[in-house]
Amino acid sequence: MRRIGIGFRWELKEWLRVNSELVDSIEITAEHFFRFDKTCKQVLKSLGRDYSTFVHGLGLSLGTPGPLCEKTLDNFVKVAELANAKWVSEHVSFTRSGELDLGHLNPIHYDADSLSNLVEHARHLSERCNRKLILENITSSIRFESAMHETEFLNELCRQADCGLLLDVTNLFINSRNHRFDPIHWLREIEPTNIVQLHVVGYSKENDIYHDRHAKPIQDDLLDLVQTVFEYADVRAVTLERDEDFGAVHEIEGDLKRLRAIDV
């Protein structure tokens, strides 16, 4: 069964209560619950009881050499346990350099050193959570020469770390437009059994540059790419991401219905 769901945001809590029939699964951003007050704990347990849940991280910085931040890791594990997460996810990126939090997902070099570091961190995270880990591709405003192609790197990462891929279709689409490559060719280079979950949200465009601001409804060309992924891989879940303009609930409801209507 392919689950169609949404990323939990506090602004959507009441909407979710009255529109639960549109949602099979909920993705929980771990860092949004790190204060662990009574309300946070109650919401996590409630979501874990009523939906299939996945916990998604933003700040573990798996691409940074050296040990993971133990406090962040402990909190991440606690969220996954409270929410009864089916699996957990993070990004193929780094957000921290030394002790400095960069506050942004940054691209890594696709080479043997980065691969070894990510494999070690991915295995450690999965073992601590006692859950399957899937890792997400990111957007990048720059492209640099690396020893490996991105798709080769992701396939090898999944193999060595025994993890899966959280394929962000919007990120793939945006990178393909900004860096001028064929997203279908990129997709065909990914081992289909690696693809577990999708992220999707509409893109923004300014001065011929595409951006991922999590604020727009899904455009038709993105929906076509989602359908292509469905035809290529046995996707287990799709998460609609929305971080702005929560008042436009008709757009959110429309996107969920359009994703559910894809017949593959």
Question: Your description of this structure?
Answer:
By secondary structure, the chain is of the alpha/beta class. The chain has a single domain (3-97, 105-261), classed as Alpha-Beta Barrel (TIM Barrel), CATH 3.20.20. It is built from nine helices and twelve strands. α4 (112-129) packs across α5.
What's a quick, concise take on this entry?
It is built from nine helices and twelve strands. It is of the alpha/beta class. The longest helix is centred in the middle third of the chain and has 18 residues, at 112-129.
Tell me the layout of helices and strands.
Elements: E1 3-7, H1 13-18, E2 25-29, H2 38-50, E3 52-56, H3 70-82, E4 87-91, E5 94-97, E6 100-106, H4 112-129, E7 132-136, H5 150-161, E8 164-168, H6 169-178, H7 183-188, E9 195-200, E10 202-206, E11 209-216, H8 220-232, E12 237-240, H9 249-261
Parallel strand pairs: 1-2, 1-12, 2-3, 3-4, 4-7, 7-8, 8-9, 9-12
Antiparallel strand pairs: 5-6, 10-11
Helix pairs in contact: 4-5
